[in-house]
Write a structure and sequence with these properties.
heterotrimer; A alpha/beta (256); B alpha/beta (385); C alpha/beta (327); A: alpha/beta; Rossmann fold; 2 domains; two-stranded antiparallel ribbon; 7 helices; globular; B: 385 residues; alpha/beta; 3 domains; 4-stranded parallel sheet; binds flavin-adenine dinucleotide
């Protein structure tokens, strides 16, 4: 069973988001982590490997700093890592998926896993696009995955419940919270990871040119939410206060 | 059949390379485990110092979790007993740093590091709100003509409960006529607990930032509100070239009282039991100052825990445990509160913001917050001014 | 030349999701400005009856894709059918609701059409003749405005409840165009579907959270919070004190050592606002506190607060919310 995991490095959840002088998201002084949903995907890949044998390859599109996240995956137990540095200012989901699919197309795979979304841009579409490019079926937001004899039975979340689907392999699955509890890398795993292959590639190495990965989506601007106004204590008798609060939430804060 | 255990020397080499060379001195006698508070809890804990050293040395898997490697509160109760004189918390720190480099630390701690990196404090609070605790209170700003910088721990800067401690300390310093001021929003966390997570890079960034800032502002002497800041400023910042004179506020106040510059006159007729902060007592050897300060308060009746000074039990908040979950039945602070209550004390006094958080939490969980309270000694002293 | 703004009609068992009407309303305005037609795309089985009525919400035309193969939503079936039609008709835009289904479908269709997709949008506007979308990033800590300048159709999924349903015209009907859909090879075989009645959303995914602390006094009293949560479609959370007391399981805990949440609205009842609690929820967009202690720390971070007895206030809030949710 050969498993490929598409993994993204993201800002950590506590990151304070600010804009730089060019109005772009400021990346200075922010901790980078493995996207938590991708961590579920890595963990699931390792569990499948432990049960059925095979090899786990983790692929990421990103700058050199993404090696840290790949190394974490290797320390957790993945066998190989591939980093494609697109060397471009802006990549959209179309570009990322094109690059990932191209990198994966040269590999052996039965299962491709990814996080169902990344916590930074939350776009939740890259893995689906990879599936489409490679001509594979996709099952998103998976909370349970069983592999048996060339088939997978996956439980996915749907609105108001869950659904059990069967697909033939190879197939793509995206991990939702609840799929598993990711392991910590062991000290030994960390040492072993240092000797595992980390393959660094450029677009040219994959045989892609700039036109093939030109983004479809163009960012016009970034902005921050308006600053918090000072808090208000709603005065009055309980009934009046409750009424005024609900009114304020709807009409002033416009949140309900 | 079980798999054979393979030795993996590189793990030991990595621990040694990150400053844990003393792991090789261990003779596996187990006195550490015997003295560890985890072993004295109602509910059995997985954590075992001796076993961890053994596994680390031989490169075995299986101790790199919330409940094992990251369970240690670095209270150093074991270090006091170790016949080989090993600085056990330092070995723990170096083991954690090997893990931390790869990003595999406990989830809660990742958020802490994220907050440290982007906000300069571990509590996910806005860096520009660092001086919010001073609102409505006259707190002098540090200028080069001031003798001391008052460095307020992130916890006392941001936690509503702990902010009261920062204000009490300010009032006491003012009453004693100490020349001091605060810097505030430009400061970052001292990094003591950050280093205990194993986050060497983040710790280095914090230390360099603060040292630069203090030097730029002309700081020579620092008063800390927390024993943790005291510990790192005194023992770890010099590695980065710091040359400050650092005191915990309790030491300074103690000197002022001895010199007759500060007097407590209002009686506080309560039975007060003193909980020893590990980083003030065992780690910094300041045992008498807080006791003598409390002793200087008229009508105050002092009580002691059975284990005190070098044998005092930790609150469970050190070593970054303050940001991690500890199961009920395994919380050291619960045991302390129970003992305090049995002693008939009305107040548990301490001198560390972490201890206050932990003890107060236990007080609430045992529904004893009506009959007893947790106070920083500065709050009691202020009451007695 | 690409023409027509399309709205994907999300329905289950013949009941149309409200977000569809929201998209039709917004799409209507855009279509008028651009001088294009607004089309609804309705895949399913036995759904034709819905079609004409979509005119009331602004659709000029409804493509009905009736097929046995589309009786239930499957990724392949729906994506194949919608993409095939789009390839033939070449619309300029396709809008879908950002629901579990909309998200799933949009990515596949976008890639089949080789176009750009903006997901999870909270606003849509026309700027210089171009559709521009706003979407939150970094869990709402920033926003990005983006467009798809060349590739067509531009695709977007838009969150439910962010666009208003307006300008409906009773009796206006849409032209119904029946299309024989090409659902293609459906590789996801449905084995089982389990629907739970009225499940509350998961804490970390919820838009609204109603949380209770030690001020709740006992487990039985969480009922009043649950009633409020159900009116709002909210999740229920708790402080660690409430969890430690055994009133709620650990999975409900919000805070440093529980869950980190950033909902649109966080309603804290009988919670003092300890720093560990704040660490888990202070990035919520709007914080509401109900506490009898005017000095409680929670009021320092609250956008709105009521000082009072929660046992009195919370049921009143439930009643007030009921009134406005109905209107
Ligand atoms: C290691 C550690 C980790 C922790 N992690 C977390 C965490 O993840 N999440 C968390 O929440 N806490 C956490 N805590 C606990 C935290 O320190 C506080 O003890 C806890 O948040 C307090 O919960 P509370 O606000 O419900 O209770 P209290 O602080 O007791 O507050 C109860 C509030 O209810 C109000 N009240 C009482 N009756 C009424 C009434 N009838 N009407 C209106 N108001 C009323 C009171 O005025 C009071 O403000 C942690 C603590 C430690 C030590």
């Amino acid at each position: 069973m050969n498993i490929v995991v598409c993994m993204k490095q993201t800002f950590d959840t506590e990151a304070k988001i600010a804009l730089d002088a060019n109005g772009k998201i400021n990346k200075q002084g922010v901790s980078l982590i493995m996207n938590p949903y991708c961590e579920f995907a890595v963990e699931e890949a390792l569990r499948i490997k432990e049960k059925h044998g095979g090899e786990v390859t983790v692929v990421s599109v990103g700058g050199p700093e993404a090696q840290d996240a790949l190394r974490q995956a290797l320390a957790m137990g993945a066998d190989k890592a591939v980093l494609v540095d697109p060397g471009m200012e802006e990549v959209d989901e179309f570009a990322t998926a094109t690059i990932l699919a191209k990198a994966i197309s040269g590999m052996q795979y039965d299962i491709i896993l990814g996080g169902f979304r990344a916590i930074d841009d939350g776009s939740a579409q890259v893995a689906g696009r990879v599936a489409e490019i490679l001509g594979l079926p996709v099952v998103n937001v998976v909370v349970k995955l069983d592999i048996e004899g060339g088939k997978a039975v996956a439980t996915k979340e749907i609105e108001g419940g869950s659904q059990v689907l069967e697909v033939s392999l190879p197939a793509v699955f995206t991990a939702q919270k609840g799929l598993n509890e990711p392991r910590y890398p062991s000290m030994k795993g960390i040492m072993q990871a240092k000797k595992k292959p980390m393959d660094k590639k450029t677009l040219a190495d994959l045989g892609l040119d700039a036109a093939q990965v030109a983004p479809k989506v163009k960012v016009l601007s970034y902005f921050l939410p308006s600053a918090r106004a000072a808090g208000k204590i709603i005065p009055g008798e309980p009934a009046d206060a409750a009424r005024d609060l609900v009114k304020a939430l709807r009409e002033e804060a416009k949140v309900i | 059949m079980s798999e054979p255990l393979m030795l993996f020397d590189e793990v030991r080499d990595a621990i040694v390379a990150s400053g844990g060379e003393e792991i090789q001195m261990c003779m596996q006698c187990g006195l550490c485990t015997g003295s560890c508070p985890w072993g004295r809890m109602e509910e059995k804990a997985e954590f075992n110092v001796r076993a961890m050293f053994h596994m680390g040395r031989l490169g075995y898997d299986g101790y790199e979790s919330d409940d094992f490697l990251f369970a240690c509160t670095t209270c150093n109760q074991c270090g006091v007993k170790c016949p080989r004189g090993i600085k056990i918390p330092n070995v723990v720190r170096s083991m954690r740093s090997v893990i931390c480099e790869t990003g595999g630390i406990p989830k809660n701690l990742k958020a802490v590091l994220g907050s440290i990196n982007s906000q300069g404090n571990p509590w996910s609070q806005e860096k520009d709100d660092r001086t919010a605790w001073t609102a409505g209170h006259d707190v002098p700003e540090f200028t080069p003509d001031k003798e001391y910088l008052l460095y307020v721990c992130c916890t006392s800067a941001y936690d509503g409960r702990s902010q009261k401690v920062a204000r009490s300390i300010v009032d006491l310093l003012k009453a004693a006529g100490v020349s001091f001021g605060i810097i505030g929003n430009e400061e970052k966390c001292c990094g003591e607990s950050v280093r205990k997570i194993g986050a060497e890079e983040e710790f280095g960034n914090l230390a360099r930032h603060n040292i630069d800032l203090f030097n730029k502002k002309g700081v020579k002497k620092i008063i800390t509100t927390s024993p943790h800041c005291l510990y790192t400023f005194k023992n770890e910042y010099p590695e980065f070239g710091a040359e400050f004179e650092v005191v915990h506020y309790s030491e300074l106040l103690h000197n002022l009282v001895s010199g007759g510059k500060l007097k407590f006159s209002k009686p506080v007729a309560k039975k007060v039991i003193y909980h020893e902060p590990c980083y003030l007592g065992r780690h910094s050897r300041i045992f008498d100052a807080p006791r003598e300060l409390l002793g200087a308060v008229p009508d105050l009746e002092m009580a002691e825990f059975k284990g005190n000074r070098d044998f005092s039990m930790c609150c469970s908040g050190g070593g970054a445990r303050i940001w991690m979950e500890t199961k009920a039945g395994q919380r050291f602070s619960d045991v302390k509160v129970k003992e305090a209550s049995e002693s008939g004390s009305q107040v548990i006094a301490t001198a560390c913001p972490y201890c206050i958080v932990m003890l107060e939490d236990s007080l609430k969980n045992q529904n004893k917050d009506e009959e007893m309270s947790v106070k920083d000694i500065s709050e009691i002293l202020k009451e007695s001014l | 030349m690409a023409k027509g703004i399309w709205v994907y009609v999300e329905q289950r068992d013949g009941k149309v999701k409200k977000v569809t009407y929201e998209l039709l309303s917004a799409g209507r305005k855009a279509a008028d400005s651009l001088g294009e037609e607004l089309c609804a795309v309705l895949p399913g089985k036995g759904v034709a009856g819905i079609a004409p009525g979509l005119g009331e919400y602004g659709a000029d035309k409804v493509y009905v894709l009736e097929s046995d193969a589309l009786e239930q939503y499957t990724t392949d079936g729906y994506a194949n059918a919608v993409a095939a039609l789009a390839k033939e008709k070449e619309p300029s835009a396709i809008l879908m609701g950002c629901t579990v289904t909309g998200r799933d479908l949009a990515a596949q269709v976008a890639q089949k059409l080789g176009t750009g997709l903006l997901t999870d949008c909270t606003d849509m506007a026309l700027e210089n003749g171009q559709l521009v979308f706003t979407r939150p990033i970094y869990a709402g800590k920033a926003f990005v405005k983006a467009a798809c300048p060349e590739a067509r159709p531009v695709m977007a999924t838009i969150r439910p409840n962010v666009l208003a349903v307006e300008g409906t015209q009773a009796g206006r009907t849409a032209e119904v165009v029946n299309v024989t859909p090409n659902a293609g090879d459906i590789r996801q075989i449905i084995k089982d579907t389990v629907l739970q009645v009225s499940t509350r959303p998961e804490l970390t995914e919820a838009d609204i959270i109603v949380s209770g602390g030690r001020g709740m006094k006992g487990p039985e009293n969480f009922k009043i919070l649950e009633d409020l949560a159900d009116v709002l479609g909210a999740a229920v959370g708790a402080s660690r004190a409430a969890v430690d007391a055994g009133w709620k399981p650990h999975s409900f805990q919000v805070g440093q050592t529980g869950k980190t949440v950033s909902p649109v609205v966080y309603i804290a009842c009988g919670i003092s606002g300890a720093i560990q609690h704040l660490a888990g929820m202070s990035s919520s967009k709007c914080i509401v506190a109900v506490n009898k202690d005017p000095e409680a720390n929670i009021f320092k971070v609250a956008d709105y607060g009521i000082v009072g007895d929660l046992f009195e206030i919370v049921p009143l809030l439930t009643e007030e919310f009921k009134k406005i949710m109905a209107s």
